[in-house]
């Protein structure tokens, strides 16, 4: 029935689809028509004539992935998606869908009141952007297929517009989908405006939400972190060599894979000849002789300038200016990328003490960013993120997938600080990685003179908006005055309104303001508080942390081009001290004496890998043509962060590493000695449950639960990291990241395969099931029991509940953790090799223990479990304790071992199916 219509629609559904591909797509559509109706009771009309967004054969698995969009009245329904995955014989091995039942009955007329031009204007207005100027069509087409406009003076890229339906609750709304890449690079909007009224119905951002969330985590964890010791502050960061002392022709001087930063490894020479030709056959750099003549046009290579720049088929790396007033690096300039000269010798001096804008440091950082993006391209391509599945390349040599989407890797982005991000538009448009400068707070000194109670030196963080402190040669100085807005409950010092009650006193002074404390969300922003101070005549602002016990300085995030006064952030302890002295005494004079050299995010290879990871998960989930499939609360904003953290940890795992060792994200950017933590996450990544006890119940909205972007992502990354070490435990660690062998390589391949198979806007259990399905399809389920055991250990077992789906969006609420295995799964008993946890059958930690030993298991039992400790002769040391099964699976039982003599003992757990034991050590 619907299949005949589907077959006829293929040419329109996928205009660029090769004739040879039409047969597997036909087979996929036929399978979808039958199985989707059976899955959810969809009607023939519901599954008729879907739009095929992409379809490709995955040579690494032998599967063909076909991704679909529901279509009503000839229009696609935004994110009403489906997929058919077929094997080499054309058999459908997995069919998923999130189509809307009865969509045709609730669809309004497909005739819009607004023209496409008016839709662009409406989108710009709703997004607070300027009105388009000289808007013209550059690609004509049917409204249902899309029309492309020029940049209109408001976008960095041409503006595609497409008529479609948007699902809102149980109804459909006719919308224009408009994509605008903001000129300031803050956002790359994909907005849906009502096609009849112009109101904004929905939006998503191709720039994954690092600008707010990543930065807020940096600020939050800076405020929680204890100041470094004097030894740590003065210890030099590793820096090696000047130009000519390390380099060699046809090479790069970089921090090599798998080392995380200059704190872990000196820079070394990596020859271009080491490039893996399977994944970069024309080399990494435009001047490589492996590239055929004319392969790169001069408009891209810029070789006519006589310079050899950090650009190639996979990435173009360049300086993005490093100052808040710019932030728009010029891809076409020959001066924003380092020049390797005729010998292609990319060796530049690096000395952290000179600051990132030092010409040598800038060139060294950009070179490092170029190298790591190329390595990420090659390693991920070896695991299946290739041309046909949507990777990032200037030209696709297989003529599959879309080219002209190399990564634009921008060093020292000037539009903010303490930050990083990655934008992922659909296949065929460049991904953009923006790396930022980070505060060196331990060398930023605010000197305060008098009265005696406040005199001294205070550490501070800088602001990502307003004039940079370093632009004041002698620092900015003046009398400090506590603000009083007459509104805030803390005596007005939170600066929640303007004008101030004491505006006259603030005029020409530096305003002291407390963080937070406002009911209106906008006025909690640092930039808003500083803008209030500016409007009241202040010449500068000091914001102190609202945590009165906080001892670390804070950095001030946000953007506001209208802020023209400088601002700094100090700790809560220092702020309260200043406030008390000012309240009790007379004027205080301040002078910013020293600004420490910033840290360049391009040298934090873990964060670089994290950002590239957003491009991977966004392109693979839902197919390369749909970059909006990780757009839900549990998709883009949480699981995406988890995958990216996993990729960061994976790329920086070194031979000899141990799974129980604490690993941190952004330690270098956060100015922390390697291994000291805490990085910018709440808990370290480790298989040690005493240090990271996250389970699925961590997700939610209750006290102590997580719903923020990166917080929830931590839970997903934690279980992936556990699984990675179990794979290493089973298959070993392989130093060659391009090899198919080794547990680390097998695990990364499985994660990427799972992304291709999972549903659009997945939840945690969707992600788990996709990994299980990938293992089933590619490894004949060789690791199914292991995978189940690992997920069950973190509360994502067989009896876990994912939560509701509303319009295809899994909620953070409604989640129920579960620790059970499927009926036929085996309990895996593993050793502690490589630091993997001691097995899901029975865990006892810490081991060695002192006064308390926690015993935990994922075993099942028809009756409460009995826990006993005996010595090696079988004599009972701690008598049997009866523990409910649910407690043993979730938190376990704490045994008091304070009175147990030091030595080696056995812990026995008796269930209705048998007794299990593990060896423990007691030390006092």
From TrEMBL:
Residues 220-232, 322-338, 412-427 have a biased composition (Polar residues). It holds the Pfam family FTP. Residues 220-247, 313-361, 411-431 are annotated as: Disordered. It is found in: Secreted. GO terms for biological process: proteolysis. Residues 52-99 form the FTP domain. Keywords: Hydrolase, Metal-binding, Metalloprotease, Protease, Secreted, Signal, Zinc, Zymogen. Residues 845-922 form the Secretion system C-terminal sorting domain. GO terms for cellular component: extracellular space. Residues 1-20 form the signal peptide. Its main location: secreted. The keyword Cytoplasm does not apply. PANTHER family: EXTRACELLULAR METALLOPROTEINASE MEP. Belongs to the peptidase M36 family. This is Metalloprotease. It comes from Hymenobacter glacialis.
């Amino acid at each position: 029935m619907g299949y005949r219509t589907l077959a006829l629609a293929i040419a329109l559904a996928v205009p660029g689809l090769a004739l040879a591909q039409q047969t597997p797509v036909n087979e996929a559509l036929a399978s979808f028509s039958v199985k989707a109706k059976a899955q959810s009771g969809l009607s023939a009309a519901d599954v008729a004539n879907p739009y095929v967004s992409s379809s490709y054969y995955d040579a690494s698995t032998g599967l063909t992935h076909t991704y679909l969009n529901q279509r009503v009245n000839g229009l696609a329904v935004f994110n009403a998606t489906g997929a058919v995955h077929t094997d080499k014989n054309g058999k459908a091995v997995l069919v998923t869908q999130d189509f809307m039942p009865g969509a045709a009955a609730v669809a309004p007329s497909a005739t819009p009141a607004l023209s496409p031009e008016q839709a662009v204007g409406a989108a710009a207005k709703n997004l607070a952007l300027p009105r388009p100027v000289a808007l013209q069509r550059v690609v004509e087409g049917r409204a249902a297929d899309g029309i492309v406009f020029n940049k209109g003076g408001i976008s960095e890229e041409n503006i595609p517009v497409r008529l479609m339906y948007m699902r809102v609750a149980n109804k459909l709304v006719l919308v224009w989908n408009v994509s605008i890449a903001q000129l300031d690079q803050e956002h790359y909007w994909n907005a849906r405006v009502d096609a009849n009224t112009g109101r904004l119905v929905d939006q998503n951002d191709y720039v994954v939400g690092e600008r707010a969330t990543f930065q807020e985590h940096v600020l939050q964890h800076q405020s929680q972190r204890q100041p470094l010791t004097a030894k740590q502050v003065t210890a030099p960061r590793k820096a090696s060599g000047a130009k000519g002392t390390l380099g060699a022709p046809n090479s790069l001087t970089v921090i090599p894979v798998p080392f995380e930063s200059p704190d872990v490894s000196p820079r070394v020479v990596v020859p271009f000849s080491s490039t893996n030709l399977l994944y970069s056959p024309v080399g990494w750099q435009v001047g490589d002789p492996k590239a055929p003549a004319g392969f790169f046009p001069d408009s891209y290579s810029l070789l006519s300038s006589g310079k050899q720049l950090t650009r190639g088929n996979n990435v173009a790396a360049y300086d993005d200016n490093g100052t808040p007033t710019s932030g728009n690096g010029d891809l076409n300039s020959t001066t924003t990328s380092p020049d390797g000269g005729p010998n292609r010798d990319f060796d530049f001096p690096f000395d952290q003490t000179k600051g990132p804008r030092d010409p040598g440091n800038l060139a060294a950082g950009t070179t490092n960013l170029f190298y790591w993006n190329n390595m990420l391209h090659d390693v991920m391509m070896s695991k299946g993120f290739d041309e046909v599945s949507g990777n990032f390349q200037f030209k696709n040599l297989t003529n599959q997938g879309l080219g002209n989407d190399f990564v634009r890797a921008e060093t020292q982005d000037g539009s903010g600080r303490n930050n990083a991000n990655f934008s992922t538009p659909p296949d065929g448009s460049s991904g953009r990685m923006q790396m930022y400068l980070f505060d060196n707070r331990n060398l930023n000194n605010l000197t305060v003179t008098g009265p005696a109670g406040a005199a001294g030196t205070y550490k501070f963080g800088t602001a990502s908006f307003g004039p940079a402190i370093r632009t004041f040669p002698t620092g900015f100085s003046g009398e400090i005055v506590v603000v009083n807005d007459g509104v805030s409950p803390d005596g007005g010092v939170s600066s929640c309104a303007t004008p101030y009650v004491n505006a006259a006193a603030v005029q020409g002074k530096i305003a002291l303001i407390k963080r937070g404390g406002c009911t209106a969300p906008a006025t909690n922003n640092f930039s808003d508080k500083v803008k209030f101070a500016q409007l009241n005549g202040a010449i500068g602002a000091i914001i102190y942390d609202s945590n009165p016990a906080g001892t670390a300085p804070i950095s001030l995030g946000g953007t506001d081009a209208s802020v023209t006064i400088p601002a700094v952030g100090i700790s809560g302890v220092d702020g309260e001290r200043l406030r008390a002295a000012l309240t009790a005494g007379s004027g205080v004079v301040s002078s910013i004496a020293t600004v420490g050299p910033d840290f360049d995010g391009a040298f934090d290879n873990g964060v670089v890998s994290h950002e590239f990871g957003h491009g991977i998960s966004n392109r693979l989930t839902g197919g390369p043509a749909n970059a909006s499939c990780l757009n839900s609360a549990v998709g883009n904003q949480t699981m995406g962060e988890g995958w990216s953290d996993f990729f960061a940890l994976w790329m920086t795992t070194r031979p000899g590493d141990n799974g129980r060792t604490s690993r941190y994200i952004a330690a270098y950017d956060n100015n922390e000695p390697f291994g000291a933590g805490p990085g910018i996450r709440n808990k370290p990544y480790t298989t040690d449950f005493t240090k990271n006890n996250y389970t699925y119940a961590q997700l939610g909205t209750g006290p102590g639960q997580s719903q923020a972007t990166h917080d929830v992502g931590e839970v997903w990354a934690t279980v992936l990291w556990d699984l990675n070490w179990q794979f290493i435990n089973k298959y070993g660690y392989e130093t060659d990241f391009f090899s198919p062998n080794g547990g680390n390589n097998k695990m990364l391949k499985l994660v990427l395969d799972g992304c291709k198979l999972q549903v659009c806007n997945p939840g945690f259990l969707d992600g788990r099931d996709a990994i299980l399905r990938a293992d089933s399809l590619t490894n004949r389920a060789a690791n199914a029991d292991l995978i189940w055991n690992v997920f069950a250990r973190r509360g994502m077992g067989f009896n876990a509940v994912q939560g509701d789906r509303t319009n295809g969006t899994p909620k953070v609420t409604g989640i129920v953790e579960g620790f059970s295995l499927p009926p036929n799964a085996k309990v895996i008993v593993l050793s502690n090799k490589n630091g993997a946890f001691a097995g899901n059958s029975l865990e006892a930690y810490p081991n060695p223990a002192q006064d308390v030993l926690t015993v935990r298991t994922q075993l099942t039992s028809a009756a409460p479990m009995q826990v006993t400790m005996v010595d090696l002769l079988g004599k009972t040391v701690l008598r049997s304790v009866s523990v409910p099964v649910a407690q043993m699976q979730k938190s376990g039982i704490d045994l008091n071992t304070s009175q147990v003599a030091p030595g080696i003992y056995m812990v026995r757990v008796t269930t209705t199916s048998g007794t299990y034991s593990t060896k423990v050590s007691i030390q006092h």
